[in-house]
Structures are given as structure tokens and as C-alpha cells.
Amino acid sequence: xxxxxxxxxxxxxxxxxxxxxxxxxxxxxxxxxxxxxxxxxxxxxxxxxxxxxxxxxxxxxxxxxxxxxxxxxxxxxxxxxxxxxxxxxxxxxxxxxxxxxxxxxxxxxxxxxxxxxxxxxxxxxxxxxxxxxxxxxxxxxxxxxxxxxxxxxxxxxxxxxxxxxxxxxxxxxxxxxxxxxxxxxxxxxxxxxxxxxxxxxxxxxxxxxxxxxxxxxxxxxxxxxxxxxxxxxxxxxxxxxxxxxxxxxxxxxxxxxxxxxxxxxxxxxxxxxxxxxxxxxxxxxxxxxxxxxxxxxx
Amino acid sequence: xxxxxxxxxxxxxxxxxxxxxxxxxxxxxxxxxxxxxxxxxxxxxxxxxxxxxxxxxxxxxxxxxxxxxxxxxxxxxxxxxxxxxxxxxxxxxxxxxxxxxxxxxxxxxxxxxxxxxxxxxxxxxxxxxxxxxxxxxxxxxxxxxxxxxxxxxxxxxxxxxxxxxxxxxxxxxxxxxxxxxxxxxxxxxxxxxxxxxxxxxxxxxxxxxxxxxxxxxxxxxxxxxxxxxxxxxxxxxxxxxxxxxxxxxxxxxxxxxxxxxxxxxxxxxxxxxxxxxxxxxxxxxxxxxxxxxxxxxxxxxxxxxxxxxxxxxxxx
Lengths: 298, 316
Fold this sequence. Notes:
heterodimer
């Protein structure tokens, strides 16, 4: 009979200790995931502190030092205009952080709203929205992106919104599936029969239930959005130059000089691969720890 | 079976109509009208001429009227004329589609040839070094942007060995060897990036199937391991892999756009990039329609192939 009393006293610090517990399990059970998390944090810090860490300005032209190979003065060499590649990579990290996190935030929020509403309400609304999602998903993401970006024009805010939309609509399927199964749980029926309002049920029962999935979805979306933005910038449809995006550094005028300065081709691609890889393994580990049901979903 | 296919095809119509309407309307909002672009290139300035150009291109009518006449034409196989080239859009598409199709097919074949054996190997040697190496490789391939790999292939062999991929397009019918020479590198890159996911799914499914009772039975009755794995396990394990191929169709088409751009292959992807930069509305709408149709027909084929692979699936 004393058990409930113990439970309620333990409830207060639960949230914080749950986070710490998760971190402990991550380090203990998923070393690769933990390494991924560490690299992701490092990448985030590089993005935030780019202005402080970068030794030179991103568009500081230095014609006396054109196409210099990596050295102590220029850690990653210089490009055809004598701009310091290391500084541009750091600022590229900042752009990737901004695009990746805000794009993933929009995408996840959108998936959550569409998924929860259609999954919980069901019926005709669900049917209509799902057909629209079908139509949207029948088209290759990149083809949609190219057409949409050509309508709204290249630029960072547009890229973020468009990528958020693209991934948000695609992800709503996953959230909807989880909501549909949460809706049929006994405690939801119990809440409904006690006359609880829809919003209250959603907030107290349904959303907390799909939260692990949302966290995992957000994590993997950050990597996906970064990769998509890089692809678009590579095609010249992303954040326009002279902004130092990683995708942009691999394309356009940079390409012409890569035969003379092969290091120009290495750094941006390596950074992209490393960051996306780190985020992916971190996301995988999180998924295994938080929500084993999601295994295999990407 | 026939009525099933028919029903699936009928269900496509609203999807395609909806999607094409969106593209049709949206493309016309592209800032910098096609007429502006044409007039600036031909030094036409007067407003009177502008109206004449619009009228000649049929752009003076309301968007919805243009759309209905476009749909009417599309049903008869007439997708209008390219605003710049003057040639029928359907002819442009007929010229470009086989090129992209060849690239996609090559990539798919290469991807599956790499992924399925490695996935099977990884599953039957679970938790060995080989398994770890192939799994890490496949996770890594998910993160490597294919356009970067392509860039490396363009840059380093030419720096080290003075070898560069062929960039001049030869038609397959004119010279198959030269054609394949150009297609092979982008197809391998595209195939590799697709193989990562296929490899993972093949491994997971094989592990699942190998634990089934009928596999134990097959082994118990003394069948050789090779027969057990290839005939009993793989055939059942492959069903989700086939689904995945359908799901990857959009990725394949998207990836082909980038490869075509890098390796200067005049397929649909390159056509799309050109059409978008020239604001060639009928061409963009036509490409969109064909791409959508391709994805949907690939998925239909995938659904139908279940019956061949799995006798349990009987579609009414």
C-alpha cells in the first residue's frame, strides 16, 4: 500500500534523471552512437562559434595567395580567389547548422500536426489528406525541390521552408501510424469515456506517446535536410554564392580549379559525410534506446 | 488480376491531375516571366510586342483555361510545344526519356548486384568481422553525398593518371561501347548510393527468415546450406527488398538528375534543369507528368511482381 506514495515522490526529478539515464545508456550500450553524438555536438559548436574560430573572413580575397595547398598558415589551403578554405568550411558549418536544425524543426512540427490530427480524427479528413500526401510523395524529392525553388527563387529562408515542407509531409505518415495505434489504447478509451476533451487527450496521452518517435524523427531529419541543402546548392539552386555552403563549394566556379587544387574537392565533402554520418549513427542509437519499434524506419 | 491493374490505374488519375495542376499553376509564378526573358534576349521592348509574344505562345489566356486545354491535349498525347525550342514537348521527352531510363536501369542492376550478395553474406556471417565491415560501409554510404563522389571521380583520376570520364554523349544505337563507357561511371556511383539501404534491408530480412521453422526443417532433412540459403531463404527474404526498389524509384530519378548534370548526359534531369532555367512551362509540366507516371508505374510493377515471388499473395 505504500507504493503509490513512493511513486509520487519520485515523480519530481524524473525528467532530468531520464535524460541523464539516456545519456548513460548511450555511452554504455551504443559507443558508436555516443561518438556520433559527440561529433554532432562538435559540429554544432563549430557552427555557433564560426565567427570566433575562423582565422580569416569568408570573402576575404587574397590574390597573392591563390590556390595554395594546405599549410600552417592556411590549414585547408586557399581557393582560386585566395580565400581561406578553413574559414569558409567553418562558416559553411554555421549555414548547415541553421538550415539543418530549422528545416528539421519545421519538418518535425509539420509531421506532428498532420500526423496527430489525421491519425486521431480519422474518417474522411484522414482519407483526403492521405491521398494528398500520396500525390506529393509520388514525385521525387529532388525534382519537386528543383521546381519549387525555381518558383520561389534560391535563398536560405526559402530553402529552409521548402525542405521543411518536403520532409514534413513525408514524415507525417510515420507519426500518423503511431498515433493510430496510440488512439486505440485502453487509457485513451478510458479518458474518452470520462468525458475528457479532445485537446486534453491529445496533449496528455497521444503526444507524449509519440514523443520518442518525434525525437528520433527530428534527429534523422537534421542530417537529411543538410544533405538536401548541399545537393541543391551544388546544383546552384540552394543558398546563392558567395555564401560558403559546403554544397556550393563543390560546384560552380570551384570545380574549374579543382584540377589545380585538388584539396578544394576534399574538405567540403568530407565534412558533409562526417556530419551526416555522425547524425545518422546518433539517430540510430537514439531510436534503439527510445523506441525499438521504429527499427528499420528512416 | 486484370481488374486489379485497372483499378490501380484509375486511382492514378486524381493523383496525377492534382499534382499536375499544382505544378502548372506554380510554375507560372516563377519570378521573371518567360516573355521578359525572351524579349530581353531579342531586344524587344515595346508593350505592344509583348502582347503579341504572349498571344503567340498562348500565355494571354487565364491559367485555368490554359490548364484545361493542356489536360485535354495530354489525354491525346499532345503535351504542347516547348516555348523556346518550338518542338513538341512529347518529342523532346521521347528523345530524353530512354537516356535516363538506361542510366537508371544500369544503376539499379549495379546496385542490386552489389547489395544482395553482400546483404546475404552479412546475414549468414552475422557478427563476424565481415559483417561489421559491410554494415559500417553501408551506413557510411548513406551519408556520402553522391555528387561529392562524382566530383572526386572527376578530379583525382585526372590529376593522378590523366584519366577523365567521357563527357561527350554518344547514342547507344550509334556506338554501344562508347555509350556504356560514358554511362558506367555515373551508373556505378548511383548504384552504390542506392545499395546502402538495400544491403541493410536484405540483411535484416535474411536474418529474420533464417530463424524460421521451415529453414530448420530444410536443414534437418539434409539439404545443402547453399540450397537452403538460396532457394528457401533468399526467395522469401527478397519480397521486402522488391518493395524497397519501388520506394527507391524517386531517389533513383532524383539522383539521376545530379549525375546527368555532372556527367553531361542529355537525359530528363538535364532537360529539367534547362527547362527550369528557361522557364519553359510546357516542358516543365511535361517532365513532371512523365516523372510522376514513371514512379507510379514502377510501384505498380513492384506490386505485381509479388505474385511471382510469393505464391501466397493472390491478388483478386
